[in-house]
## 1
Amino acid sequence: MNLVLLGINHNTAPIEVRERLAIPAGRLADATRTLLHQPGIREGLILSTCNRVEIVTLQDDTLNTETTKADLLRFLHEYFAVPPHTIQPHLYEFREREAVRHLFRVASSLDSMVVGEPQILGQVKESYTIAREVGAVSSQLDTLLQRAFTVAKKVRSETQIGSNSVSIASVAVDLARNIFGSLQGKTVLLVGAGKMSELAARHLIQHGAANILVANRTQARAEKIAADFNGTVIPFDEIYTQADRADIVITSTGAPQKLFGRSHGQHFLQRRRNRPMFFIDIAVPRDVDPGMNEVEGCFVYDIDDLQQVAASNLADRSREAAAAETIVSDEVEKYQQRLQSRDAVPAILALQQNAEAIREAELARSAKRLAALTPEQREAVEALTRSLTAKLLHPQLTALRESTRPKSKE
């Protein structure tokens, strides 16, 4: 089997491209099933977040490199109705060992926009759960993903990469503080009650925001979030008449079309008598038209804008990130050695079975000459031939086992 990982992320593609490939949570199972039906794919998983869309597959050995990449590119083109030339310049591809390394780094938050953020591991686990439910992950990918989770936990426990946790949510709060100076008494509107917007709201409250308004298409979810923050639910179809109550609007809906445009911003500012309004758009696809930034008093930041602020945090974490990278490298090596050991087992069994078949065949040919032997003598002959066979096999079996053992580091 060939392990192939193909994807785009915040480092290779702007949000204008990423949002065209984003998969809402409700469609992830369908997309994974469709992936599994592509030629030569035995197992597969799709990871879709605001910062990346990645496809991890196990494919038939009979397929060559160019064929597998072309098949995956065709899947992206057909499923998302996006021309290949739009996707291809932003794609990265990893195979075998490097695919394992990349997956370990992603799960450990070493490839995140904000290094050390904790959300990505949960997102990988969610994709894994969905892939298992639709039958797209079984033996080999299951083993790999379970190992990725273990590596991520090890990185988190053996380094300080997650200390003073920085996330997209906390970066958004820093931007809001820069605009307003103080967040004391500010009102926050959550449009879409996802995990990221919930985290941002929590950070805003910790820094003085006083009131939380929640609008979500699913009323029960809105009510739950509002209860957690002692906030108020706004019916989703009233966001345009009530959004101007908020100083800070956090959007994360997964809607296919933008919810807020420039005209909405102008209307909100008129009703607010030109008091500034801050939009944190952490949705992919985006919920807020970038044109709203042209309205004086409206400040709009999308996920890529937040990346620029997040980059300043990387220097503080470089030492811990280096320690985490060492852990990942060691774990990749161990995983590859396990694969080699697993691959050696069939060869060892085949040698043993072949030798035993030859031993039994030779005893059968000599059956007439051994017919006069007593039971004790027959047992002695059996023991002697088994011992000779084992000794003759010993050098070959030792060589096979040694080839899969960890190499000592100088």
## 2
Amino acid sequence: MHDIRAIRENPEAFTAGLKRRGLADAQALTNDILDRDHGLRALLTRLQEAQARRNEASKLIGQAKAKKDEAQAQALMSEVAGLKDEIQKGEEEERTLKKALDDVLASIPNLPASDVPDGADENDNVEAEHRRFGSRPATNAAKEHFDLGEKLGLMDFERAAKVSGSRFVFLKAGLARLERALGNFMLDLQTGEFGYTEMQVPLMVRDDAAFGTGQLPKFAEDLFRTTNDFWLIPTAEISLTNFVREEILEDEKLPLRFTAWTPCFRSEAGAAGKDTRGMIRMHQFSKVELVSITTPEQSQAEHERMTDCAQEVLKRLNLHHRVVTLCTGDMGFSATKTYDIEVWLPGQNRFREISSCSNCGDFQARRMNARYRPKDGKGTRFVHTLNGSGLAVGRTLIAVMENYQNDDGSISIPDALRPYMGGMEKIGP
């Protein structure tokens, strides 16, 4: 959600930010917002004047009656009644105008940070310096994960399709345990070494929670909805970030750092024809999510730290990867800056996203009314919120399978995961 005062005070900067986001009608949109704001403020001024006159006339009624000037008293009472009706109608109009303005503001994406590269799509993303790790494994005719999994007899898409349709899978035995091992390893790393607080969170949320993090109203078609109007979470970011909604936090308690390992549900409405085979793009998948709640002064450093925390998972697994800064045209709706971590998949012979770490500034906090009280105690300010995958567990499973595959089709277990696999060194048929 955008600050109407900031738009009012510097409309040129707002328009420039919208243009960087790729909005062709940026100037017209800014003008529309300012016109709506002007109309609303003019109405509020009239309402204040009417309220002041009603209060004044109400006092004069008593004075007129004290003087036994009944005609004056009746005229004033008639005026007060008219002002009452005028104020009631004006308050209804105020609610209508405010909702219309808020709806427009809620539909506009966050503005990009000044150091975000300009660009139209993923082809314009920029690799971050000094954040590439490892090298491509030397493999001969590397197979993709679904070929490996099906040959092992431990990954079954056909049976899942009978039960639930496309974009679902059954994992069995060693692969099922490997996914569980990955989730536990990630949680232990983030809580034990990086200070995140582990949470168990609701998997169904109400409209205002999904609105708070920016999934609603714009991306409703990407979500699954229950028959009694809950939304299945597409990421634990919604539940974790809304943990502080409508609260005023104390400055000294920030930053707050939360993590949760949950199933996630996405309709993949815009993914027709993309990644139709395998586990890359599923309706149901699991993810370890990282969320931070900070002051504005802390958020930039926290963004770098969060990305390092997510990247450390891949380092411990010795998986070749890189970090890229998303350009203005590829960032998510709520983000002001995003780093994507991309892992190397030898079966596809390319890097694929395995984590996105985003700084949302105060964009989500305004939608959730989440604030903190500065140390000087003067008023309150909106917190900054950050979120990232630490990591997508299913995609990490894919990366382990493809990078640790053997010529006989078996999968070697990375050293870091063997304690979670009962000492198992290899997954065979």
## 3
Amino acid sequence: MHDLNFIRENSNLFDDLLKSRFLDPQSKKILDLDSKKRDLLTKSQEMRSERKNLSSSFSKLAENEKLKIQQKVQQIKSDIDTLEKQLTIIDIQLKDILSSIPNLPHADVPIGKDEEFNKIVKTVGEIPKFDFTPKPHYELGENLEMLDFEQASKVSGTRFVYLKNQLARLERAIANFMLDKHTTEFGYTEIIPPNMVRDAAAYGTGQLPKFSEDLFKTNTDHWLIPTAEVPLTNLVLDTILQEDQLPQRLTAWTPCYRSEAGAAGRDTRGMIRQHQFSKVELVSITKEEDSEKELERMLNCATSILDDLKVSYQIMLLSSGDMGFSAEKTYDIEVWLPGENKYREISSCSNCRSFQARRMNARYKTNEQNKFVHTLNGSGLAVGRTLIAVLENYQNKDGSITIPDVLIPYMGNIEKISKV
């Protein structure tokens, strides 16, 4: 959500920043409605004052004057009711417009319509060399008889999979390793959040109203979470925190559910794009002056997982047209997948500044005033895609998978996964 005061004072800048998001100017429409609202509020206040004055003088009037005053008071009340209805309509219109406009990009963000304009920040690690042609993860898993897409399709349809035996254990090992590192080394608090949320929570983080088609909805009017960002960030929904309660750093391993409405024909093989997948999420709630440094910290927490797994990755600064709706600035982490011979996204880390907090009405107290918190989120990491990265980077010629050193304790000290 955007600050009306900012738009009033910086209408040209607001429109210029929207243009960098490849959107039409919106300030005139917003400020016209805002002006009408303020005019109506002034009229309403004047009418209420007049009605109060008339009512206070009523007992002093002669009987023949009281009827006229009663009629006038009733007319004013009717006029106020009409104004209130008009104000309600304008409030709805303003909220609809402001709710549909994405966050404004940070000055560092490269301007561009899509991923072609993303900027490589750095590349880490060496691309592995094999003395055989590396296979994609789905072939490796099916050959091990530990990934079953066919049966999952019969049971649930496309974009689902059964993980079996040691690959099921490997996914759990990856998640446990991530959680242990983020909690013990980086000070995140582990949370087990609800996997279903109400409209207000999905609205607060920016999934509603614009992206409802990307979500799954239950027959109880709950939304299945597309990421743990939603319930974690909403821990501060409608709250006022003390300044010394910040920062709050939260992490959770949850299933995530996405309809992939815009992904028809994309990544139809394997586990890259599923309706259900698991992710270890990182969320930070900070003071406004701390959020930019917190984004760099969160990015380092996420990349440390790949450093420990010893796989190559690159960090991308997303362009203005490729960023998510709520983000002011986003880094993508892309891991090298030998089976695809390219880098693929495994995490996005975003600073949303006060954008989500305004929607959630989440503030903190300072000596001078109450301010909106700043919110950040990132994958630390997508567990299924990390499993893919391990399978493809640690594959052997015979189809077995060597276990990365840091995961061996989580795998009961086995060092390799082979066909049973």
## 4
Amino acid sequence: MRATPANDLSPFGEHQPHGALRQLLHFTQNAGLHWLGQRAALLVRGFGLRRLRARPVDVTVATLSARMRLYPYNNACEKRLLFTPQFADREERRFLAARLKPDMIFLDIGAGVGATSLFVALRAGPRAKILAVEPQPVLFERLVFNLRQNPEATIKATDCAVADVESEVTLFTNPFDLAETSMRIVNVEGGGDSVRASARSLAMLVHEEGFERVDAMKLDVEGAEDLVLEPFLVSEPQALWPLVLILAYSPGRWDVDLCAMLEERGYRRILRTRVYVMYERAAALEENG
């Protein structure tokens, strides 16, 4: 089994790219958005990964305006943020950017190393309330480290799973890609790992934080989105339903048809990408004209 190296918590800047690595990153990060640019960037990225081995890199991710320590070794999300941030979740961030407001409340469920939370916080401003939730222990430690490098971002980090129970759950981990950690079994050739984590319902999180509304939410929990969202939509008043929702699209792993459920409750599908589907409630559409 592939071991996961311990996170490096040395001061930010200890792992700035230099020399050939710096030039390589400049190339991949500035490759064009056309097909040829993407192919060239991916080819060069392979050389960079072999050069780095398991070492992290300290960078300012231009598309986020955020300082981050990234580990491309065993996390596909961090690999994209380091080498090709211009390709990473472009449509999702454009969708969010058009809906930001200074006093917004944003929930990032399955926050990973904090990219989306930082994107929102650094643009919405200090009055925004942002809750970043990540249960995977290695990723949570990276999340907290990255938040500390951006003190102007008003983000609260919470290390728990969000589920349909309020006890403990088993998280299944892919050692080759920590972003695939899920409450549903992860298929890994040669076996994966598992950890136990405390779990809360989405309703409990919202009430504990004293939120009277949720302006936007990103929900990406690797195929367990139905365990988070269905109980919330059934038990909680409409005033607490998120006005804007970015939902990781995994219908083959859900036990219920979340998309149909959302549309029955007045959500309108705005956009679908390879990874996410984006919705707005009628109330948000009216507010935005």
